[in-house]
Specification:
The protein is an alpha+beta fold and about 210 residues long. It is about 20% helix and about 40% strand. The mean pLDDT is about 85.
Length: about 210
């Protein structure tokens, strides 16, 4: 993906506020040289952030007539308004080793024996993985085939086929679960409730007593 950035000369809280009032977003690009202060069109950035590829691929940034390869490192949103407050990018090249979250795309779930035959529920325990690789090998996503998933089964990190040159950063965890299968709980049929006309019976009893006394 390609986007356009502009050089930013002013800095500070007041300058950032003026930029935001002008529908611009302040940002910075670091790595492989001096950090560069930039600004971007707010609406273009806001809608780009809604695209999965903008978060997980190497981007082409056009700045001052030159094109650089960068990856999105961080961005800040307003607490309750749909406004991007700041954005950070990192310069990369083919030899830059990076660590970045990559989304998982699940395929063939509806055709698996767990779903198609046994009507089980498939739980996506993890929807993204932290991947370490060269920037040139960064995948946009990792496909997880659930076609062979069976009742009572599960998939772990070690079961996933990773792109060449990539490895998962587990932070000390040992082969965590990615997908689990659980049986659907059948709804219990509610038994019909029979309410005895207690009040009516009591009333009838009192009436009979009065008649007997007479």
């Amino acid at each position: 993906m390609k986007f356009v950035a502009f050089e930013r000369t002013l800095q500070g809280t007041g300058a950032s506020r003026r930029l935001r009032n002008a529908q611009k977003v302040p940002g910075i690009v670091y790595g492989a040289g001096e950090p560069a202060k930039i600004e971007l069109d707010h609406n273009a950035l806001f809608f780009a952030l809604k695209k999965e590829a903008f978060h997980s691929t190497v981007l082409e940034m056009e700045l001052a007539g030159k094109t650089e390869q960068v990856i999105l490192r961080d961005y800040q949103m307003h607490a309750f308004r749909p406004i991007v407050l700041h954005v950070d990018f990192q310069r990369v090249d083919a030899t830059t080793k990076i660590t970045k979250k990559v989304p998982l795309h699940f395929a063939n779930e509806e055709n698996s024996p767990a779903v198609k035959t046994d009507k089980c529920l498939v739980n996506h325990v993890v929807t993204e993985l932290m991947i370490q690789c060269l920037a040139a090998q960064l995948p946009e996503f990792i496909e997880v085939d659930l076609g062979n998933l069976a009742k009572g089964g599960s998939l772990h990190v070690n079961d996933i086929k990773l792109p060449a040159g990539s490895k998962v950063v587990l932070h000390g965890k040992k082969n965590p679960v990615i997908v689990s299968v659980s049986e659907q709980v059948a709804e219990e049929e509610a038994a019909p409730v029979v309410t005895a006309p207690v009040a009516a019976e009591k009333g009838k009893g009192k009436k009979d007593e009065k008649q007997n006394k007479r």
